[in-house]
Amino acid sequence: MLNLFPIPEQECNDKNCPYHGKLRVHGRILEGVVVSSKMQKTVVVKIDYIWRDKKYKRYEKRSSKIKAHNPPCLDAKEGDLVKIMETRPIAKTVKFVVVQVLKRAEE
User: pTM of the prediction?
Assistant: First the structure.
C-alpha cells in the first residue's frame, strides 16, 4: 500500500516512520492542510468534507482536525498540503501518520 507514494530522499532513524522504520499503515487515506506543527513529531491536519443533512436534504461543508505523526524525513510545516494514512495508535490521540507532502507552503 505504501508503494503508491514516492519514497522521501532524506533518511531518518525514526522507528515510527512508515518508510525507514517499522510502522505499518492501513485503512483510510485522507488529504488536508497542516494547521499546527508546534508539537514534537506531531502535526494537526484540518480535513474538509461535505456532510448531508438528512432532514433538510442539503449538503454543508464541515471540517475536523486530526493529529498525525510527522516523521523527520518528511518534516511537514504549517500551511503544507499533506496526505495522511491510518495506522495503529501511536499515542492517546495520534492514530494517523503523514505519508506524503503534496505542496509546501509558500514562505
Answer: 0.91
Which of 17, 81, 19 has its CA nearest to residue 48? 81
pLDDT tens sequence across 57-107: 999 999 999 999 999 999 999 999 999 999 999 999 999 999 999 999 986
Delineate the domains of the chain, giving CATH numbers in brackets.
35-107 (2.40.50.1000)
Distance between CA atoms of 70 and 17, rounded to whole angstroms? 8
Strands annotated E in 1-107: 25-39, 42-53, 58-69, 81-87, 96-103
Count other Cβ atoms within 10 Å, centred on residue 46.
13
List all residues 6 or more positions away from 79 whose beta carbon is below 8 Å from its beta carbon.
33, 34, 105, 106
Amino acid identity of residue 77, one-letter, is K
